[in-house]
Design brief:
The chain is mostly helical. It has a domain of 181 residues. Helix content is 65%, strand content 1%. It is built from 20 helices and two strands. It has a two-stranded antiparallel sheet with strand order 1-2. The C terminus is likely disordered.
C-alpha cells in the first residue's frame, strides 16, 4: 500500500474535520445544550468571571473558557443562540488531537495515519461530541495526555495536563491512582522533579481560577469547591441511564424508583457500589503497583506501555459498571485508552467490545438514529448492553494479568515502545 505524504495527511485530516462539522446535527441533548447557550450568553453579557452567578452552572472552569471563546466568536446573543450546534466543534477538536496522539504511540510510522482515522471513524468515539453535544472527550484527552507524559517521566507536563482534566470534569479523579503510581518513581529518584511538577500544577491552577476569584464581582472559589465536593448525590438513583451492574440486579421498571440511599445488608446501595469499584480497581491496579515497586528499586525499570494503557482503559469501565448515580456518558474515558492499547498491542477485543457497548448505551438513551423500535430490541436492551460492558471488563482484566510484571519479568531498562522512547509527545 502506498504511503501518502505528510502534507496529504494534513489536508485529509482538515477535510475530515470540516466534513464532520458540516454533518453536525442541530439537535443534541436538549437539556445539556440549553445550559451551554444560557451560560455562554451570560458570559457574553457579564464577563467570564461572573458566570458562576448562575446557580445551574455546576461545570468546572475550563469549559467556561470555551464558552467565552465561542461567545466572542459569535459576537451577539442572537448568534450565540442560533449557532449553538457549532459548540460541538470544540470537543470534536480534542477528539481529533487525541486520536492522532494515540496513533502516534505505534512504532511503525506508516500505520499511524490509518489508525487515527480508524479511531475518528468509530461512532462510539465521536458520538458524545458531535451528536450528544457533551464534553467528556475534552477531559479524556487531558487525562490521556497526562498518563502518556507520566510514563515518559515528564511529570511537570503530566501534572499540568491532569490539572486541566480536573478543571474540565471532576470525573477525572478516577485517573489519580494510576498517575500517582507513575509519578512516584521519578519523584523518588529525582526529588527536584517533584518540586517542579507541584509548582507547575499549582501555577496553572491559580491561572485557571484567577478570573473567578479576582476578576469578578465576588470570589466564586467557594462555589467551585462546593460544585466539586457536591458532585456526588446530585442524582441519588441506582443509575442515570448508565447500563451497568445495577440493570443486571434490579428490574428496569423499578430502576428509577429506588434511591441509592436504601440499604442492603447493612450498607446503602451507594456504598456497595463504591466498595465494588474500589476493590475491583485495586485488583486492576495490582500489576501496575508491582511495576511501580520495581521502578522504585531500579530507576531504569518502567512499566510497559500496554499495561499502563489497558489499566487506564479498564478503570473508567469499572467506574461506570459498579457505581450508582452513573450517567451513560461516563464510559467515555475508556475509549481512547483502549484504542491506544489496541494500536500498540494489536489486541483489539477490549476496544471493539467496549466501543459497541458504549455506542449502544448512548443511542438507546438519545435515540438520534430514530429507529422504529428501541424497547424490546436485544441490541438496546439494558441487560444486554450491561453484559457487553461486563465482557469488555473481563477481556481487559484477563489481559492486564497476562501483562503483569511477575509473568513477563522485570521491565527492561531499555525502552521498547514509543511511549517510553520518545522524549517528546509524538504528533
Amino acid at each position: 500500500m502506498s504511503i501518502i505524504s505528510r502534507r496529504q495527511q494534513v489536508i485529509c485530516t482538515l477535510l475530515l474535520f470540516l466534513f464532520m462539522l458540516l454533518l453536525v446535527p442541530r439537535s443534541g441533548n436538549t437539556y445539556d445544550m440549553g445550559f451551554w447557550v444560557r451560560w455562554a450568553t451570560h458570559i457574553f453579557e457579564h464577563g467570564l468571571g461572573n458566570v458562576y452567578q448562575l446557580q445551574d452552572d455546576t461545570y468546572n472552569p475550563f469549559y467556561q473558557y470555551i464558552l467565552w471563546v465561542y461567545a466572542h466568536m459569535m459576537g451577539s446573543v442572537e448568534k450565540i443562540q442560533y449557532y449553538f450546534h457549532w459548540l460541538k466543534a470544540f470537543p470534536l477538536l480534542f477528539d481529533f488531537v487525541g486520536a492522532f496522539w494515540a496513533a502516534s504511540l505505534v512504532q511503525e510510522r506508516n500505520r499511524r495515519f490509518g489508525l487515527a482515522l480508524m479511531l475518528l471513524l468509530n461512532i462510539a468515539y465521536v458520538y458524545n461530541s458531535i451528536v450528544w453535544g457533551q464534553i467528556d472527550g475534552i477531559y479524556s484527552f487531558f487525562a490521556f495526555g497526562a498518563i502518556v507524559l507520566a510514563v515518559k517521566q515528564r511529570t511537570a507536563g503530566s501534572v499540568m495536563l491532569y490539572v486541566l482534566a480536573l478543571a474540565t470534569k471532576t470525573q477525572a479523579i478516577i485517573f489519580l491512582p494510576p498517575l500517582l503510581l507513575l509519578w512516584l518513581p521519578p519523584w523518588w529518584h529525582r526529588p527536584r522533579q517533584a518540586v517542579q511538577a507541584v509548582l507547575a500544577g499549582t501555577t496553572l491552577t491559580v491561572l485557571l481560577l484567577a478570573p473567578f476569584i479576582w476578576w469578578s464581582w465576588e470570589s466564586y472559589l467557594p462555589r467551585i469547591i462546593e460544585n466539586n465536593l457536591g458532585v456526588i448525590d446530585i442524582f441519588p438513583r441506582l443509575s442515570m441511564n448508565c447500563y451497568n451492574l445495577w440493570y443486571l440486579l434490579v428490574p428496569e421498571d423499578v430502576m428509577y424508583t429506588i434511591y441509592d440511599t436504601h440499604a442492603f445488608a447493612g450498607l446503602t446501595y451507594h456504598k456497595w457500589g463504591l466498595l465494588l469499584f474500589f476493590v475491583s480497581s485495586g485488583l486492576v491496579l495490582l500489576p501496575l503497583i508491582v511495576a511501580t515497586w520495581q521502578s522504585l528499586r531500579h530507576a531504569a525499570a518502567r512499566p510497559t506501555s500496554a499495561l499502563v494503557l489497558l489499566t487506564c482503559g479498564a478503570i473508567p469501565l469499572l467506574f461506570g459498571f459498579f457505581n450508582t448515580q452513573m450517567h451513560e456518558r461516563y464510559w467515555h474515558g475508556a475509549i481512547i485508552f483502549l484504542a491506544a492499547y489496541a494500536f500498540v498491542s494489536n489486541n483489539y477485543w477490549p476496544y471493539v467490545v467496549g466501543s459497541i457497548a458504549y455506542f449502544l448505551n448512548l443511542e438507546a438513551v438519545l435515540r438520534h438514529l430514530e429507529l422504529l423500535k428501541y424497547g424490546g430490541t436485544l441490541l438496546f436492551d439494558p441487560r444486554f448492553v450491561a453484559g457487553t460492558f461486563g465482557l469488555a471488563i473481563l477481556l481487559a482484566v484477563l489481559k492486564i494479568y497476562q501483562l503483569a510484571p511477575w509473568r513477563i519479568g522485570q521491565p527492561s531498562s531499555k525502552p521498547t515502545s514509543p511511549i517510553l522512547a520518545s522524549p517528546l509527545p509524538l504528533a
